[in-house]
Amino acid sequence: MTSEVDGVLVAAHELKGPLALLRQLAFSLEYADSERERREIGREMIDISERAMKQINDLTRLRSIESGLFEIEPVAIRAVCNDVTSELKDLFRANHKNLESDYHNRLRLVAGNRDLLHSVVYNFCLNALHYSSQETASSLSVRDKNGRVRLEVRDYGPSLPADVWRAMRQGYLEQPTSIAMRPGSSGLGLYIASKFSKAMHAPVGAIRHRDGTSFYVELPAPRQENLFS
Amino acid sequence: MIYIIDDDYKMAECIARYLRPEETKIFTNAIEAIENIDDDAPKLIFLDVLLDGPDAFTFLNEIGSYENTAKIPIVIITSLNLKTRNLRAYGIKKILSKETLTPEDVKLCLKLI
Protein backbone atom coordinates (compact mmCIF):
# COMPACT_ATOMS: atom_id res chain seq x y z
CA MET A 1 0.00 0.00 0.00
CA THR A 2 2.73 2.45 1.02
CA SER A 3 4.77 1.79 -2.12
CA GLU A 4 1.61 2.25 -4.23
CA VAL A 5 1.00 5.62 -2.54
CA ASP A 6 4.68 6.50 -3.09
CA GLY A 7 4.27 5.61 -6.76
CA VAL A 8 1.22 7.86 -7.08
CA LEU A 9 3.11 10.71 -5.39
CA VAL A 10 6.09 10.26 -7.69
CA ALA A 11 3.83 10.21 -10.76
CA ALA A 12 2.01 13.33 -9.53
CA HIS A 13 5.33 15.11 -8.94
CA GLU A 14 6.61 14.11 -12.38
CA LEU A 15 3.48 15.40 -14.13
CA LYS A 16 3.45 18.68 -12.22
CA GLY A 17 6.54 19.86 -14.14
CA PRO A 18 5.00 19.85 -17.63
CA LEU A 19 1.75 21.36 -16.34
CA ALA A 20 3.57 24.22 -14.62
CA LEU A 21 5.57 24.85 -17.81
CA LEU A 22 2.45 24.76 -20.00
CA ARG A 23 0.92 27.41 -17.76
CA GLN A 24 3.96 29.66 -18.14
CA LEU A 25 4.04 29.16 -21.90
CA ALA A 26 0.38 30.17 -22.05
CA PHE A 27 1.28 33.43 -20.23
CA SER A 28 4.27 33.81 -22.56
CA LEU A 29 2.04 34.00 -25.64
CA GLU A 30 1.15 37.56 -24.63
CA TYR A 31 4.82 38.50 -24.34
CA ALA A 32 5.99 37.08 -27.67
CA ASP A 33 7.62 39.69 -29.93
CA SER A 34 6.43 38.28 -33.21
CA GLU A 35 3.94 35.95 -34.84
CA ARG A 36 6.81 33.54 -35.44
CA GLU A 37 7.68 33.43 -31.74
CA ARG A 38 4.02 32.89 -30.89
CA ARG A 39 3.92 29.94 -33.29
CA GLU A 40 7.07 28.49 -31.70
CA ILE A 41 5.54 28.77 -28.23
CA GLY A 42 2.39 27.07 -29.50
CA ARG A 43 4.50 24.28 -30.99
CA GLU A 44 6.31 23.84 -27.65
CA MET A 45 2.98 23.62 -25.84
CA ILE A 46 1.87 20.85 -28.17
CA ASP A 47 5.16 18.97 -27.72
CA ILE A 48 5.02 19.23 -23.94
CA SER A 49 1.39 18.04 -23.88
CA GLU A 50 2.26 15.10 -26.13
CA ARG A 51 5.16 14.05 -23.91
CA ALA A 52 3.00 14.28 -20.80
CA MET A 53 0.29 12.22 -22.52
CA LYS A 54 2.89 9.66 -23.49
CA GLN A 55 4.01 9.41 -19.89
CA ILE A 56 0.42 8.96 -18.72
CA ASN A 57 -0.05 6.24 -21.37
CA ASP A 58 3.10 4.51 -20.12
CA LEU A 59 1.79 4.63 -16.57
CA THR A 60 -1.51 3.05 -17.59
CA ARG A 61 0.40 0.48 -19.66
CA LEU A 62 2.27 -0.58 -16.51
CA ARG A 63 -1.00 -2.17 -15.41
CA SER A 64 -1.38 -4.13 -18.61
CA ILE A 65 2.13 -5.59 -18.45
CA GLU A 66 1.31 -6.89 -14.98
CA SER A 67 -1.55 -8.80 -16.63
CA GLY A 68 0.78 -10.02 -19.42
CA LEU A 69 -1.38 -8.33 -22.08
CA PHE A 70 1.30 -7.83 -24.72
CA GLU A 71 3.04 -9.92 -27.36
CA ILE A 72 6.71 -10.80 -27.70
CA GLU A 73 7.71 -10.80 -31.35
CA PRO A 74 10.78 -10.10 -33.50
CA VAL A 75 11.39 -6.34 -33.52
CA ALA A 76 13.78 -4.42 -35.79
CA ILE A 77 15.70 -2.50 -33.15
CA ARG A 78 17.31 0.07 -35.45
CA ALA A 79 13.91 1.04 -36.83
CA VAL A 80 12.63 1.66 -33.28
CA CYS A 81 15.73 3.73 -32.47
CA ASN A 82 15.32 5.73 -35.68
CA ASP A 83 11.67 6.44 -34.83
CA VAL A 84 12.59 7.71 -31.38
CA THR A 85 15.52 9.85 -32.51
CA SER A 86 13.36 11.33 -35.24
CA GLU A 87 10.58 12.12 -32.74
CA LEU A 88 13.00 13.76 -30.32
CA LYS A 89 15.21 15.56 -32.86
CA ASP A 90 13.40 18.90 -32.59
CA LEU A 91 13.22 18.72 -28.82
CA PHE A 92 16.98 18.19 -28.53
CA ARG A 93 17.58 21.04 -30.97
CA ALA A 94 15.24 23.38 -29.08
CA ASN A 95 17.24 22.69 -25.94
CA HIS A 96 20.57 23.30 -27.75
CA LYS A 97 21.52 19.67 -27.35
CA ASN A 98 22.25 16.85 -29.73
CA LEU A 99 21.58 13.12 -29.90
CA GLU A 100 23.85 10.96 -32.04
CA SER A 101 23.14 7.38 -33.11
CA ASP A 102 25.76 4.71 -33.61
CA TYR A 103 24.71 1.23 -34.75
CA HIS A 104 27.12 -1.73 -34.77
CA ASN A 105 24.69 -4.63 -34.27
CA ARG A 106 24.80 -7.57 -36.65
CA LEU A 107 21.71 -9.04 -34.98
CA ARG A 108 19.06 -6.84 -36.58
CA LEU A 109 16.07 -8.28 -34.70
CA VAL A 110 15.41 -8.63 -31.00
CA ALA A 111 12.69 -10.51 -29.16
CA GLY A 112 10.47 -7.91 -27.58
CA ASN A 113 7.36 -5.83 -27.91
CA ARG A 114 7.63 -2.90 -30.30
CA ASP A 115 5.59 -0.44 -28.19
CA LEU A 116 7.34 -1.33 -24.95
CA LEU A 117 10.76 -1.11 -26.60
CA HIS A 118 9.85 2.26 -28.11
CA SER A 119 8.99 3.53 -24.61
CA VAL A 120 12.25 2.18 -23.17
CA VAL A 121 14.36 3.95 -25.82
CA TYR A 122 12.24 7.10 -25.55
CA ASN A 123 12.60 7.28 -21.76
CA PHE A 124 16.37 6.65 -21.91
CA CYS A 125 16.76 9.43 -24.49
CA LEU A 126 14.54 11.89 -22.58
CA ASN A 127 16.62 11.18 -19.50
CA ALA A 128 19.78 11.98 -21.49
CA LEU A 129 18.20 15.19 -22.75
CA HIS A 130 17.39 16.29 -19.23
CA TYR A 131 20.80 15.54 -17.78
CA SER A 132 23.16 16.48 -20.58
CA SER A 133 24.93 19.77 -20.39
CA GLN A 134 24.18 22.22 -23.15
CA GLU A 135 26.17 21.91 -26.37
CA THR A 136 27.05 18.30 -25.59
CA ALA A 137 25.93 15.36 -27.69
CA SER A 138 24.27 12.38 -26.01
CA SER A 139 24.73 9.11 -27.85
CA LEU A 140 22.49 6.17 -28.58
CA SER A 141 24.42 3.05 -29.52
CA VAL A 142 23.36 -0.47 -30.42
CA ARG A 143 25.74 -3.41 -30.55
CA ASP A 144 25.83 -7.18 -30.09
CA LYS A 145 26.88 -8.58 -26.76
CA ASN A 146 27.08 -12.27 -25.92
CA GLY A 147 24.22 -13.28 -28.19
CA ARG A 148 22.08 -10.36 -27.07
CA VAL A 149 21.68 -6.84 -28.39
CA ARG A 150 22.76 -4.04 -26.11
CA LEU A 151 21.16 -0.62 -26.52
CA GLU A 152 22.94 2.09 -24.58
CA VAL A 153 22.24 5.79 -24.08
CA ARG A 154 25.11 7.90 -22.77
CA ASP A 155 24.67 11.38 -21.35
CA TYR A 156 27.19 13.98 -20.21
CA GLY A 157 25.87 15.42 -16.98
CA PRO A 158 25.91 14.59 -13.28
CA SER A 159 26.79 11.00 -12.48
CA LEU A 160 24.12 8.65 -11.17
CA PRO A 161 24.13 8.38 -7.34
CA ALA A 162 25.90 5.21 -6.18
CA ASP A 163 22.83 3.86 -4.32
CA VAL A 164 20.65 4.00 -7.46
CA TRP A 165 23.46 2.44 -9.48
CA ARG A 166 23.66 -0.40 -6.93
CA ALA A 167 19.87 -0.83 -6.98
CA MET A 168 20.06 -1.31 -10.76
CA ARG A 169 22.65 -4.07 -10.57
CA GLN A 170 19.88 -6.64 -10.17
CA GLY A 171 18.74 -5.78 -13.72
CA TYR A 172 15.76 -3.59 -12.96
CA LEU A 173 14.50 -0.89 -10.57
CA GLU A 174 12.17 -2.10 -7.83
CA GLN A 175 10.42 1.26 -7.52
CA PRO A 176 10.81 4.89 -8.55
CA THR A 177 13.03 6.75 -6.12
CA SER A 178 10.89 8.82 -3.80
CA ILE A 179 13.42 11.63 -3.67
CA ALA A 180 15.00 13.06 -6.80
CA MET A 181 17.27 10.43 -8.31
CA ARG A 182 19.32 13.12 -9.89
CA PRO A 183 18.18 16.74 -9.42
CA GLY A 184 14.89 17.54 -11.08
CA SER A 185 13.77 13.97 -11.57
CA SER A 186 12.00 11.28 -9.60
CA GLY A 187 13.39 8.63 -11.94
CA LEU A 188 9.88 7.75 -13.09
CA GLY A 189 10.92 7.44 -16.76
CA LEU A 190 13.74 5.12 -15.81
CA TYR A 191 11.42 3.08 -13.61
CA ILE A 192 8.95 2.73 -16.51
CA ALA A 193 11.81 1.69 -18.83
CA SER A 194 12.97 -0.82 -16.23
CA LYS A 195 9.49 -2.38 -15.81
CA PHE A 196 8.94 -2.63 -19.56
CA SER A 197 12.38 -4.16 -20.06
CA LYS A 198 11.78 -6.69 -17.32
CA ALA A 199 8.55 -7.71 -19.03
CA MET A 200 10.60 -8.40 -22.18
CA HIS A 201 13.16 -10.43 -20.16
CA ALA A 202 15.73 -7.75 -20.90
CA PRO A 203 17.82 -6.56 -17.94
CA VAL A 204 18.63 -2.86 -17.65
CA GLY A 205 21.73 -1.38 -16.05
CA ALA A 206 23.72 1.78 -15.61
CA ILE A 207 27.37 2.72 -15.94
CA ARG A 208 28.65 5.64 -13.91
CA HIS A 209 31.16 7.89 -15.64
CA ARG A 210 32.99 10.83 -14.11
CA ASP A 211 31.20 13.08 -16.59
CA GLY A 212 27.80 11.43 -16.93
CA THR A 213 25.89 8.18 -17.01
CA SER A 214 25.08 5.45 -19.50
CA PHE A 215 21.85 3.47 -19.23
CA TYR A 216 21.53 0.25 -21.16
CA VAL A 217 19.15 -2.61 -21.84
CA GLU A 218 20.22 -6.02 -23.15
CA LEU A 219 17.60 -7.57 -25.36
CA PRO A 220 17.45 -11.25 -26.31
CA ALA A 221 17.68 -12.19 -29.97
CA PRO A 222 14.63 -14.02 -31.32
CA ARG A 223 15.09 -17.75 -31.96
CA GLN A 224 14.24 -17.20 -35.65
CA GLU A 225 17.02 -14.62 -36.06
CA ASN A 226 19.09 -16.79 -38.42
CA LEU A 227 16.12 -16.98 -40.79
CA PHE A 228 15.97 -13.21 -41.10
CA SER A 229 19.64 -12.23 -41.19
CA MET B 1 21.77 42.25 -15.68
CA ILE B 2 19.39 39.73 -14.12
CA TYR B 3 20.39 36.07 -13.77
CA ILE B 4 17.90 33.25 -14.13
CA ILE B 5 19.32 29.93 -12.94
CA ASP B 6 17.09 26.97 -13.69
CA ASP B 7 17.89 23.53 -15.11
CA ASP B 8 14.63 23.74 -17.07
CA TYR B 9 15.73 26.04 -19.90
CA LYS B 10 12.18 26.51 -21.16
CA MET B 11 10.93 27.64 -17.76
CA ALA B 12 13.86 30.08 -17.53
CA GLU B 13 13.01 31.43 -20.98
CA CYS B 14 9.44 32.16 -19.83
CA ILE B 15 10.73 34.15 -16.85
CA ALA B 16 13.10 36.05 -19.16
CA ARG B 17 10.19 36.91 -21.48
CA TYR B 18 8.28 38.60 -18.63
CA LEU B 19 11.30 40.81 -17.97
CA ARG B 20 13.35 42.40 -20.74
CA PRO B 21 15.06 39.40 -22.33
CA GLU B 22 18.08 41.49 -23.34
CA GLU B 23 18.66 42.30 -19.67
CA THR B 24 18.63 38.68 -18.53
CA LYS B 25 21.12 35.82 -18.66
CA ILE B 26 19.99 32.23 -18.38
CA PHE B 27 22.14 29.56 -16.75
CA THR B 28 21.11 25.94 -16.48
CA ASN B 29 23.51 25.14 -13.65
CA ALA B 30 25.12 26.94 -10.72
CA ILE B 31 28.71 26.44 -11.85
CA GLU B 32 28.25 28.43 -15.08
CA ALA B 33 26.56 31.22 -13.11
CA ILE B 34 29.39 31.37 -10.58
CA GLU B 35 31.96 31.47 -13.38
CA ASN B 36 30.25 34.56 -14.81
CA ILE B 37 29.28 36.39 -11.68
CA ASP B 38 32.54 38.29 -11.08
CA ASP B 39 32.73 39.64 -14.63
CA ASP B 40 29.13 40.65 -14.85
CA ALA B 41 27.54 40.86 -11.39
CA PRO B 42 23.72 40.69 -11.60
CA LYS B 43 21.34 43.10 -9.86
CA LEU B 44 18.90 40.29 -9.12
CA ILE B 45 18.94 36.49 -9.29
CA PHE B 46 15.99 34.17 -9.91
CA LEU B 47 17.10 30.79 -8.64
CA ASP B 48 15.63 27.30 -8.90
CA VAL B 49 16.43 24.98 -5.96
CA LEU B 50 17.02 21.55 -7.50
CA LEU B 51 19.70 22.00 -10.13
CA ASP B 52 21.93 19.64 -12.03
CA GLY B 53 25.23 19.54 -10.12
CA PRO B 54 25.55 21.88 -7.12
CA ASP B 55 22.11 22.87 -5.82
CA ALA B 56 20.77 26.32 -4.91
CA PHE B 57 22.07 26.19 -1.35
CA THR B 58 25.62 25.43 -2.46
CA PHE B 59 25.32 28.38 -4.87
CA LEU B 60 23.97 30.64 -2.10
CA ASN B 61 26.78 29.67 0.28
CA GLU B 62 29.31 30.43 -2.44
CA ILE B 63 28.04 33.86 -3.43
CA GLY B 64 27.23 34.75 0.19
CA SER B 65 30.88 34.29 1.14
CA TYR B 66 32.18 37.05 -1.17
CA GLU B 67 31.70 40.72 -0.43
CA ASN B 68 30.88 41.73 -4.01
CA THR B 69 28.08 39.17 -4.38
CA ALA B 70 26.78 38.69 -0.84
CA LYS B 71 24.12 41.40 -1.12
CA ILE B 72 22.57 40.44 -4.45
CA PRO B 73 18.84 39.96 -3.87
CA ILE B 74 17.70 36.40 -4.53
CA VAL B 75 14.25 35.20 -5.57
CA ILE B 76 13.71 31.46 -5.32
CA ILE B 77 11.50 29.88 -7.98
CA THR B 78 10.55 26.36 -7.02
CA SER B 79 7.90 23.66 -6.87
CA LEU B 80 9.06 22.78 -3.36
CA ASN B 81 7.14 24.00 -0.35
CA LEU B 82 9.66 26.41 1.17
CA LYS B 83 9.09 29.31 3.57
CA THR B 84 10.90 32.64 3.17
CA ARG B 85 11.34 33.07 6.92
CA ASN B 86 13.43 29.87 7.07
CA LEU B 87 15.73 31.05 4.31
CA ARG B 88 16.37 34.72 5.15
CA ALA B 89 19.88 33.84 6.33
CA TYR B 90 20.72 33.01 2.71
CA GLY B 91 19.69 36.49 1.53
CA ILE B 92 16.47 35.23 0.00
CA LYS B 93 13.96 38.03 -0.45
CA LYS B 94 11.06 36.13 -1.94
CA ILE B 95 9.91 32.66 -2.88
CA LEU B 96 7.71 32.15 -5.94
CA SER B 97 5.94 28.88 -6.58
CA LYS B 98 6.39 27.51 -10.10
CA GLU B 99 2.84 26.24 -9.90
CA THR B 100 1.16 29.57 -9.24
CA LEU B 101 3.51 32.33 -10.36
CA THR B 102 2.28 34.90 -12.86
CA PRO B 103 4.19 37.40 -15.05
CA GLU B 104 3.10 40.15 -12.64
CA ASP B 105 4.73 38.28 -9.70
CA VAL B 106 7.99 38.16 -11.64
CA LYS B 107 7.84 41.82 -12.65
CA LEU B 108 7.12 42.87 -9.06
CA CYS B 109 10.45 41.34 -8.06
CA LEU B 110 12.22 44.13 -9.99
CA LYS B 111 11.38 46.37 -7.02
CA LEU B 112 13.93 44.38 -5.00
CA ILE B 113 16.75 45.91 -7.09
Number of helices of chain A: 7
Based on the coordinates given, report the CATH architecture of chain B.
3-Layer(aba) Sandwich
Distance from first to last alpha carbon of chain A: 47 Å
Q: Provide the succession of SSEs of chain B.
A: EHEHEHEHEH
Tell me the Rg of chain B in angstroms.
Answer: 13 Å
**E-strand count of chain B:** 5
Strand order of the largest sheet of chain A: 2-4-5-7-6
The strand count of chain A comes to: 7
Q: Give the number of helices of chain B.
A: 5
Class inferred from helices and paired strands of chain B: alpha/beta
Low-confidence stretches of chain A: 178-184
Radius of gyration from the alpha-carbon trace of chain A, in angstroms = 18 Å
Textual characterization of the structure:
The complex is a heterodimer of chains A (229) and B (113). Chain A is α+β, with helices and mostly antiparallel strands. Chain A is built from 7 helices and 7 strands, in the order ααβαββαββααββα. Chain A has helices at 2-28, 35-66, 77-94, 114-131, 162-167, 188-199, 225-228; strands at 73-76, 98-103, 109-112, 137-145, 148-155, 204-209, 212-220. In chain A, α2 packs across α6 (188-199). The radius of gyration of chain A is 18 Å and the shape is globular. In chain A, 38% of the residues are buried. The termini of chain B are close together. By secondary structure, chain B is of the alpha/beta class. The A-B interface holds A 13, 16-17, 19-21, 23-25, 27-28, 30-32, 44, 48, 94-96, 130-131, 133-134, 157-158, 180, 182-184 and B 7-11, 13-15, 17-18, 28-29, 50-53, 55, 79, 98-99, 101-103.
Which features would summarize this protein structure in a list?
heterodimer, A: 229 residues, alpha+beta, five-stranded mixed beta sheet, two-stranded antiparallel ribbon, 7 helices, 7 strands, 51% helix, globular, B: 113 residues, alpha/beta, Rossmann fold, five-stranded parallel beta sheet, 5 helices, 33% helix
Summarize the structure.
The complex is a heterodimer of chains A (229) and B (113). By secondary structure, chain A is an alpha+beta fold.
